[in-house]
Amino acid sequence: MLKYLKCLGLDDCKLLEKLPEDLDRLQHLERLDLGECTSISRLPHDICLLKGVRISGLRDLLQSCCLHPR
């Protein structure tokens, strides 16, 4: 796993349907870009464990989860 990854840019991945369930293992992640990932219908529960991560895109899904887009 890429545990030292700081930025994960998945923006414009229109065919991406889901994110890995173990995103919380990316302990050094600072930014997650999900803009225009229109096929993702739900977020993994563990995404709420990513403290201090700036997440962009998927505003409606983030609001229904425990996070709010920043």
Explain this structure:
It is a single chain. By secondary structure, this protein is mostly beta strands. It has 1 helix and 3 strands. The protein has one helix spanning about 60-65, and strands spanning about 5-10, 30-35, 55. The protein has a 3-stranded parallel beta sheet with strand order 1-2-3, with no helix packed on it. It is globular, with a radius of gyration of 11 Å. InterPro entries: LRR_dom_sf.
Order of helices and strands: EEEH
Largest sheet: 3 strands, parallel
Taking all Cα atoms into account, the compactness measure Rg is: 11 Å
Q: Roughly what fraction of the amino acids lie in strands?
A: 5-15%
- State the low-pLDDT regions, or none: none
Number of strands: 3
The structure class reads mainly beta
What is the terminal-to-terminal distance?
Answer: 26 Å
For the residues shown, what is the average pLDDT? 87
Give the count of helical stretches: 1
In which order are the strands of the major sheet placed?
Answer: 1-2-3
Q: Estimate the global geometry from the Cα principal axes.
A: globular
Please estimate the helix content: under 10%
What's the short version?
With 70 residues, this protein is mainly beta. The protein is 9% helix and 13% strand. The relative contact order is 0.25.
Q: What are the defining features of this structure?
A:
70 residues; mainly beta; 3-stranded parallel β-sheet; 3 strands
